[in-house]
Amino acid sequence: MISGRIHSCTSCSPSSSSTFPYHPPCLTSASRHCKFPLSLSPPALSISQRVSRNCLVTRYSSGWSETQFSFSGLSNNKHLLPVGLGALVTSNTQGISSGPLIAEEKIGVLLLNLGGPETLEDVQPFLFNLFADPDIIRLPRLFRFLQKPLAQFISVLRAPKSKEGYASIGGGSPLRRITDAQAEELRKSLWAKDVPAKVYVGMRYWHPFTEEAIEQIKKDGITKLVVLPLYPQFSISTSGSSLRLLESIFRDDEYLVNMQHTVIPSWYQREGYIKAMANLIEKELEKFDRPDKVVIFFSAHGVPLAYVEEAGDPYKAEMEECVDLIIEELEKRKITNSYTLAYQSRVGPVEWLKPYTDETIVELGRKGVKSLLAVPIR
After folding, report:
1. pTM for the complete prediction?
2. For residue range 167-189, what is the model confidence (pLDDT) as tens digits?
3. Residue 154 parent element (H or E)
4. Where are the beta strands (DSSP E) in the chain?
């Protein structure tokens, strides 16, 4: 084990709940820069060999690394989204970002997030909601009738351990409080730019549920809506799940069908986000006695490998590029620490994206690493 100092950059992911006791599958990838040649996902994907300052390993790419979603050009990228999302993303989007605002228009922004148990009593029902989502646990068509019974079994089984984790951080997840604060700051920023928008929060697996947010949007008479998942990278199990839920809600509601709306599927390449991550990492490194000797350890959420190789989830490539951009920003600041990326939160017997966080920490210790800066990222 690593006998030196381990710091956790717990605020490094502005839209995440950091290293909380349990996180749902959220597809991730290995960085192209990895000083330690840890095991990566199998070479079934296209391979490009790249040598850089800290890289002696092969980079595996699913071909999604060049994918970019623009705010105004979503309709051109409809084919890049999972089946069923294109209609939601491109429906009546032309009016949301063009033309002056008029008094009759009511602008809304819907922030989508995971949700989390606010008390220990909420843990088991929260886990049930999570595992009952077919985008989290994918069962063959013939066995889909087992989705809820299986979710009940897993949630009851995992609840005691998860409760211990939540108890250690104050008895519940702070995600709602953090997301509400983000919503308020966004509202203030938009009003300062003469955009009198209302900002709503919709959680996928706990209160306030997405359905509750939509009802409030309708009550407020919103006429133009921007949908912003608070996951920097797109994954079918996070943003995808929330957007599919929205699509089902919109499909059956005449008011929503006729409302102009647009979706921002991912935003991990945004300069502000990259610089914010780099700022936090730089700040935490200064707390070490020898900052230049610290290994930066990105720990990202994992998903079953099949999500990437069979379902075509772009998250692996997007996470890989995200880490690269953060490192490039640090390099501009003359910060050239070694770093690596691993994946956490695997569930069940199937293979997930590798290397795993717990195994990687042990391996780093064996390699003589004494100081580690843990950076939760999603």
Report:
1. 0.75
2. 999 999 999 999 999 999 999 99
3. helix 147-168
4. 5-8, 46-49, 58-61, 107-113, 198-203, 224-229, 260-263, 295-301, 339-344, 371-377
